[in-house]
Amino acid sequence: MTHDDGHLIQATLRGDSQAYGKLVQKYQDRLLTALVHVCSSRHEAEDALQDAFVQAYLKLSSFAGGSAFYTWLYRIAFNTAISRRRRRRDESSVEQNRELTGEEPEDDGEGVDENLLRQERAVQVQRALGKLSDEHRAILVLREVDGCDYDHIADILELPVGTVRSRLHRARLHLKEELSAILQAEGSEDGYG
Predict the structure, then answer these.
(1) Rounded to the nearest 5°, which phi and psi values hold at 141?
(2) Which CATH fold would you assign to the domain 1-104?
(3) What is the reported pLDDT for 94?
């Protein structure tokens, strides 16, 4: 835990709500980016993040400081997102996903074909992620999207490092299978398969 986080936590516990607001500002963007990939919807991720910050505030006195505050907060946010996802099992279509995330492609100087291909691949990966179990999805997002190392993932998910490694391996295999199935289905729809 950073000294700054510790100071803000203590101030919050003494009743300084502005101190907690600073913690929220410090971590909200980073957490939201990860949760969008877990929830497959920016709106759902924002709701999960808000719930997680409320839960963290209510549980703040139980934070023992054994791990970084961000790790503790991340665990709450992921558990919240997964719980919400389990309650809302319905799958959304690609078009609905675009509507919900509100994200439009940015012009980065690439040709139209390259940009469209990259967007299509991103949608395919997102669809494949959506078909994975919550455990596999969470571990892939932590490793591949947020760039967490194995020890950090183990702390967040409260798992032994060996379990993280094996679960990540299985998650990658399942993602590959789902992507293959999506590509095959799209190929047959286009008359190429």
Answers:
(1) -65, -45
(2) Rna Polymerase Sigma Factor; Chain: A (1.10.1740)
(3) 47
